[in-house]
Amino acid sequence: MSNMKTEPEMDWSQLFASRTALMTPSALRELLKVTSRAEVISFAGGLPAAELFPVPRFKSALAAVLDQHGGKSLQYSITEGLPELRDWIALRFSTPRLRIAHENVLITSGAQQALSLLGRILFEKGDRVIVENPTYLALLSAWRPTGVEFMPALCDARGLRVEKCRPLMKRKPKAIYCVPNFQNPLGATMSLPRRKKLAALARAHSMAIIEDNPYGELRYSGRALPNLLELDAPERPGSDFSSRVIYAGTFSKVLAPGLRVGWVIASKPVIEKLALAKQAADLQTSTLNQYLALELVRQGFLEDFIPVLRRHYGQRRDAMLEALDRYFPKSARWTKPDGGVFLWVTLPPGADSGHLLEAALNEGVAFVPGGEFHLNGEGKNTMRLNFSNMPPARIEEGIKKLGGLLRRGVNSIS
Amino acid sequence: MSNMKTEPEMDWSQLFASRTALMTPSALRELLKVTSRAEVISFAGGLPAAELFPVPRFKSALAAVLDQHGGKSLQYSITEGLPELRDWIALRFSTPRLRIAHENVLITSGAQQALSLLGRILFEKGDRVIVENPTYLALLSAWRPTGVEFMPALCDARGLRVEKCRPLMKRKPKAIYCVPNFQNPLGATMSLPRRKKLAALARAHSMAIIEDNPYGELRYSGRALPNLLELDAPERPGSDFSSRVIYAGTFSKVLAPGLRVGWVIASKPVIEKLALAKQAADLQTSTLNQYLALELVRQGFLEDFIPVLRRHYGQRRDAMLEALDRYFPKSARWTKPDGGVFLWVTLPPGADSGHLLEAALNEGVAFVPGGEFHLNGEGKNTMRLNFSNMPPARIEEGIKKLGGLLRRGVNSIS
Questions:
Q1: Shortest CA gap A42–chain B (Å)
Q2: Do B282 and A260 touch (CB under 8 A)?
Q3: What's this model's pTM, rounded to 2 decimal places?
Q4: pLDDT tens digits for B63-87?
Q5: Which of A338, B217, B328, B348 places its Cα 20 to 30 Å from the Cα of A94?
Q6: Is A203 within 8 Å of A240 (Cβ atoms)?
Q7: ipTM value for the complex
Q8: Distances, alpha carbon A300 to alpha carbons A295, A304, A310, B410, in Å
Q9: Does the distance separating the beta carbons of A66 and B55 come in below 8 Å?
Q10: How many other CB atoms are found less than 10 A from the CB of residue B43?
Q11: A235 and B16: CB-CB below 8 Å?
């Protein structure tokens, strides 16, 4: 063949499945790539504070894993997860009313995989699922390609407005997805009466509840509330697990996200199908990282580390709330979360947080415009602010800059 | 509410998507769960020899990662993978003719995830894909739920019979999936003329080639052959990467499978869609394990460890071939692989390796009946034997037992 001959380029767009057209890069994601630069004050991601990770404890726990388990910790292991880790999770979430066995637990590669696998086993074109509006962005990207229709449900400062979900029942949603504690992006927490109402509503309509609880342990004020998983437990104490709640948990926020270890707690038929989907998806979650998580939790790592996180993140939340009070225009409102890593600002109607972001990036401050988290084009005047990943002084500095932009009329609302 | 009241059980089967019916547990998988018991001589899985893992090197590499990168190695990182690891892979696979940039590389949670994500972006109902028959079992489970139709292609001792694929082109398959080196399950290697023919066939029909190469480095005899990725490189040296080959690689067989670190090399449009699918699937592959793999390869781990694997696995292959010669009936035939971890036995027509397995498990020996790997109910008289996971003496013992069962007429073929 001659060097002059030019091969026709492969036209990949002809080869992609139609669902792949639903996978599109967000312009925002490109815009926010700058946030990885150290000089940027980023309120954008949901990142934990890496400077708080007790690196020497991870190092010694890894050494202990390799000393104790040797090559086994580097070898293939079973799809469902390490039996000892499944047992530990089953025990941690069991209550007198709720008896969880290790067969009710599947280890996943982070909670994101749990959600993605649930989408695969549950949804197809013609199905409907209720989601909080606004909701977790990567949930939408995980489930959209299944063809499921999202039914947005209203939220306020006490979380999902369950009463407003009743009319949606006519269209027979298969499931409702919610983040009851310190919701992403609102920072709102669902009240106990609403949790009970939601459990009853799901029971009355044979609807599954997908409870996503990545932030539950990160509470800085107020009293912990029971999980939906627990509220839906059978009336007879001691009976086997049987629940319409599918619970997604993760070590990402209380241990370290770079390990990618999460879990699902659910009825056996759900776990069985999820395990088949997981085997096809990635065979199993990293053996080494599962042993590492197990070693750390057995050493009492969570009892030591969660209070550290609560103290620091609580201070950061307070620093952000104080700075908002001081620097933001009076016309803006924001949530006062009891925990988690996000709060939510609402600017006056007509303001555009997308414009604000452009100006803010020029001053080295990043956040996520709230419209992104909405299903129906609403929320252009809203914004999500993360407070876990920056120390208090930089939080104040960043909020001051944002407030200055708002007061100088970037959104004509000063 | 009274304790006497029994809640109706949730009927999960009503809630599953129709594709979930295609996810069914294999009876075989249950049967083979016994193989994790230490006393069982297992030729069943595709497991590396964990006793060969240089555990102290992993331990010191992990310590080095944590010393060097601290909390960053435990933090979230970008979906596409660590830039340094993508660069390393790009460089390792680049040749004078084939210039791979890091934008052509995506890090995945093992090669299984690479295959699963490819299924998601490429296939839907109405699409067709050619696969070797027999082929890799977990490929079928990963792609079946997409609705794609599998078109089986004939193989022999020199791999895929490319000539036999020509008539299949009329039905316009989107892609062909193949394992050119030491194929799973046959152990066969595709000859160079066939590789060239396959590249030309794909080019002529605008078909993608999905080249899965987990075992390529594990060669014990014969000369290494160029990858399809390289054979399909543009004619003009130095031009940018543009290929109809999508290459799936993994550290599982040359480093350790428990890390779950693999990769895809492909044209940018494919990598971009795969990255979106990956973000929805699990956000990213473990940061810690990517840093660990990077640290090890930079230390020259592969240059030390691959020769160790070749020596040991080569001895195990030889031990199995010798034992087969000695103990199996003359009517049986088997492949003589130049590498990898499997060989393939064909018993006379009418024999049933499923029956043999039942008898073998009673004697503490496991393998996988070959029918499992076939698309069309063929291969009941075949069996796949793994030789990497048992030392030579146990290989001889196990083959002797299987041979004894065959000679005693378990399959009436003695």
A1: 14
A2: yes
A3: 0.95
A4: 999 999 999 999 999 999 999 999 9
A5: A338
A6: no
A7: 0.95
A8: 9, 7, 16, 54
A9: yes
A10: 28
A11: no
